[in-house]
Structure formats: structure tokens, C-alpha cells
Amino acid sequence: MTRSSAELSLRERIGQINQRLKGWEAVEWVDGAPRVTDVLRREVDRWGGIGAIYGVLRADPWSQVRWENGVPPARSAEAYAAVQEVVRTRGSGLPTLFVEEVPHGLMALGGTTLPVNLALGAGMDVDLVEGLGAEVAAEARARGTHVALVSGLDVLRDPRWGRAEECFSEDPALAALLVEATVRGMQGRNPHGRLAHDRIAVVAKHLAGQGAGIGGRNGSGAPIGRRELGEIHLRPAYVAARAGVSGFMAAYNDIDGVPCSANADLLTGVLREDWGWEGIVMADGTAVDRLRDSTPDPASAAALAITAGVDLSLWDEAFTHVEEAVERGLLDQTLVTRAADRVLALKWRVGLLEEAQQEHAVTGPAEDRSPREFLELAHRAAVQSCVLVQDDGVLPLSASAVVAVIGPNADDLEAQLGDYTPPRPDDDTQASTVRSALEARHGTGHVRYAQGASHRSRLPGDAAEQMEAALSGADAAVVVLGGTSRRRYDDEFADNGAVDGPAPDTTNGEGVDLSRLALPESQLDLLRAARAAVPVVIAVLIDGRPRPLEPLVALADALIVAPFPGPNGGAAIVDVLATGVGGGLLPATFPSTDGVWPVAHDERRETARGYVDARHPVGGLFGSGASAVSVRLRPVEATLTAEALREGGTVTLTADLVNDTDRAVSLPVPLYGRRHELGLRPRRRSVLAVERVEVAARSTAAVAFTLGLDGLGSWADGRPVPAPAEVVAWTAPSHDPPSDALVVRITDEEGGTGWEH
Quick one: DSSP state of residue 274? Predict the structure, then answer.
């Protein structure tokens, strides 16, 4: 089939940039078989085809798809085939792309659910993230999916934002490393070629600046300057583009007043002209319709988006007015052709335009994968996501101890999963909560459970008496607090699937932004009760956003933070209790108290003294984690010219690690830096590189950090460029350079950095 849309009529080209349908409205599962609806037939007939269909397999409260009425995992191909048969036999005959949400695993019945991005950010394991991406891609592609919508571009700059859990970190370098690994894992390491049959096209979201919304409100404007945009928010997108990501999703928010879905400077100037990237730009759900506040009518909104560089709509009515926009002279017809050609190019990349189905993008034999190995990777990711923030010598917890386990997240599986999660099967043998994992280790007779409180309030009835009974005579209390992104089937939803109603026990996720971050007093009261009743108190925080930790540190002997760790999160947390060794570092700054935000470890140095009524966290707790492994950089003199850096030159810094414990330790080792560039106020501390290292018991190891243009260049324009500077580097967890920090000099032609005294 052709890869050009020139031979199609204007209406058929409009059909190729159309993704109006929600898949669960196009095909239903009835009496054990797929049934195509008239909604699909009418849409295909109206446009002579359809470019993409979203969410045929999606299962969640918004779609109202459950195990009882959804597409069974083993029958996914049948559902897709029924839809494709209608599309192929009407109009242009061009096949459609099947698009699904894959934020932390395929959002379909039976899809493997992983820890959320914030949890993977805590683990800081690039190789593991790439491996997980490959497993997710194989699972989704085996079921017939072509395109995955994947979170990861958003950088967490305000923890009030409900979608914080979808971010890898507040640090753009760490986010970029993990986004790049995700794209490589899901698409393969061929940046521009056809995708193998076990890989899937990635549309990365969201572009750009969504994590910098005013007040942490979802979709609010990002009033930031060009340098902030480039250094923080475009860096993950650039490395995704460099890795050959198939598409970007234009975000809801505006940047300095210009909506991302109408931002030609961003979608065309930056992506295509500056970066040389080729792929599709998809609008976020109903984002083009939301341009009605910037345009007089739907035709004008569609024209504005397509002219800016949007190629594919998502649920928008505005794209049904594209023909009108052309007739009125608002939109050049060649731009419709341009967008349709980009959609066809993606269909070619995933193998849809082949005459024979069996030839679809096969580049080699399939890798042998087993569900067991996938689940082992997911469990490893959950273990690495658990951060041991504090331990006053009470861990490891003896397996013979009598333990009271209390709190709203102590035995709530859904509270471990995060947003955009399909319903779990009833016979979920892989799932574990903290309670069930403690019972497996200590025995049911040694574990006493009481919920104690809900996520937002106290429980009615005899909850207090049940908690007192659980605490009475216990050797230790494990108090499991935090939030949840739970969605219920009777919740109210906005037109894009975000929560739009009371959701009385939901505290996280899209549409659930908070004005206050402190845990409710009803949860802190559980800690106070435990502190008064038992000799050892261990606090566990399961949440999808940074929370003030000072009250927990003050009341507990040990503190574990676990960003929504997934279905097997309970076992991962109990592993930390049993070993006394955490798996990761905090991927974002946890503020000292309410009102002291937004705050990030890489804020620019200030002359202000902070607040009078609250302690500013001075970079906060980013990177905190109790570790028995010491890390020290080897002294070295490092100088590199800017020209050499441009040509691929690198500097290698080596750190020595010493493990004084009696067990092997796996830990992330970040290399921090402060860049001094003439005329610019430096950021207090940034991540230059990070490596995941395993050190044997009573042993030493060395880790090498190789710094090239990404680590040493300037990101002011959203891509790395060499510039004279001095970069101070260190591995200690301090937010200011220690006395043994190293200096890397990037010099100009005369040998200067601009920073000589």
C-alpha cells in the first residue's frame, strides 16, 4: 500500500488524522464474541476511513469496562480483527492504528501492572527500565496493539499536582535517562527503522511543561522562561526524540499563554526544524476542542492545531471541521496532506501497510519471554522503589516479632497501583499487601491488623477499639499511611477521563490536585497511638507524590517511602523490613511542611533567607536513603575543550564504594554537579549521571561515570550544546559541594572557562 496520502480525497485525508472514537464504543464483547457497533461503521463511512482508534482494550471505571464485559486477554486479537475488517472493507481501505494507554503497563484486562514512574525514578535503574519496556511492548504487541501512549516527559516541579506519580523525577537528567530507556525498550534500538514484531510504537507524553502548572493544577499554564523550558522540560523530550520515539502528545497546558497544541514554535520549530525529528504529534484528549478559548469556532481551532504541527486528534470534534477550515481559507490543504502522510508513515513503521500480515515488521526471531521472568522484573522494580529514609537501629525486624499492622494502606491493594490501572483479577496470586506479606513471613498468629482510618478521615464505629486491640502486646507496629489513586465505577468523570466528582477517598491521580500536602491528622493519629503503645514504630508511606515527612520522622523509629509500588508492593516493603536495606533514593524533594513548595533540589541559588514561619528544606530530601555503603570520588584533574565536547569527547570520573555490611547491597549512585557559567545564576545541585551498582558483602567496588555533552553541556535551548563552564561534581548526599568535590573544566579556544578568578 502507498505511504502517501496524495491519492486520497480531502475527506479521506481528514479521516486519516481522525481519532475521535473511543474503542469501547466501537466494539463490544457480547456473549463471548466481539460485536462491532454502528458507531464505528458510521465514522468510517463518514470519512472513508479512520486513522487510529483509541482504547479498544481499555478497562477501567471511566470506560465502564470490567472483567464481566471486557475483552478477555486471550481474545484481544479477535476484537481488533473485527474492527479492522470494517475499516479495511469500507472507503479507502487503509487499516487503522490501534492505540492503548500504557502508563505503567498495558491498561487492559490481564495487562501486567508495574510500579508507577515515580517508583522507577526511585530505583534509578536504567537497564531495568529498558528491560521492563521490552516486556510491556511484547505483551501489548502480542495482543495486537500498535501504539502505546506512555507517560514520562513530565518533570515533577510541584507536588500538589495529582499526576506527580506519572513523573520519573523532579530532576530532568534522571527523567531523561529513564525516558530514553523506556523508548529503547519498547521500540528497540533502531531509532528510525521498522519496528520488530515484538516492539510497539511509543507516543511520549506530555509535551511540554505540564509539571510546571500554576499552583500544581492539572492543565494550568506554565509561566516559565525559555531557559527554564529548555533546561527542565524539554530535556526528556529531546532524548526521546534522539532515541527515535514515534510520537509526542501535545499537552493541555499553555507555555506563557500559548497552548501546547497550538504552539508552532514548539511542535514545528523545536521538534522538527531544530531537532530534525520525524514522527507524529498527537493532541491530548479533547485538547483541540479546548482551543475554543483561543479561537472563535471549531474550524479555527482545528486550523490552528494542524498549522502548528498537530497530526492526529484524540476525541476532538474540532477535526470534523477541517474541511470547512480549508474551504474558508483558514487552513492550507497541503498541511492536511502533511499530517495524513505522517500518520501513514507510522502505519508503515508498525507494518500495517504490508500486503501480507505475516510480513509485519519482522526483523528477526522473537525473543523467548516467560510471564514468570516479567513478574520477577516487576518485583525487582518494586523492591528498588522502596526508600529507607530513616532507621534508628530497629531494622531488620525479627521474623518472630508480634507485629501490629495498621493504617489505610496496610491492606489495600488498589492503593498500591496508581492511576490508569485496569481492574485486577479476583484470583490474583501475584498480589501482596503489607499485611499479607507480613503474615507470610511472621505467620498469621503473629500479625494483628486494623485499618484505623481512611485516606482522608477517621472511620466510624469501633475502629479505635480495633486499633487498640491490634497494638496491645505487640512488639512492633508497622503503620502504613499515604494516599490512593483509586477510581470507582460510580465516580464522576470529565470528558477526558479525569476525576470530576467528589471521589471521597481518592487523593492522587489525574484531576486530583491538592492544596495541602500534609497527611490528614486522622492518619498521623495512628502513628501517635502506635508510639504510645509499642516499643518499635515503623512508618511506611505509600503515595504517588511527595509529602511532608517531618511528622513521620519525629514519631517513628524507621521510615520507608514507597511510591505506588504495584501489585507486589507489599512483599517489596516487607523485604526492606526483613533486611534493613532500602532499594532506592527519593526521586523528588519532600518538603519540610505544608506551604514550603514548590521546592526542588536543583532550584537556582537564592539570596533570599527563606520563610520566617517555616524551615526551608535547603534542597529538601531528594536522594535521602539510609545506606551502609560509603562512596568517594577519586581525585582527578579533568579539562575538556568545548569543541572536543561537541565532537563527542568525554570525561570519566570514578567513585570507590565500600560495603561494610554482611550482605550484598544494590543501590543507585548519583553523581551530582553544580554548573558555573559566566553571567548565569547556577542551580544549587543537579544530577550529572547515575549508575546502579551492586557491592558484595564486606567488599569494595568501583563505578565510572562517563560525562559527555549530555552531562556537561548547556540545555538552555532544550538540546545539549557545549559552552565554557566549570562543573563541580560530587557523590555525597549534600546539597552543596563538599570539600573533596572535583572540578571539570570546559574551556574555550583560549583555554578559559569564563570562571577564572
Answer: I
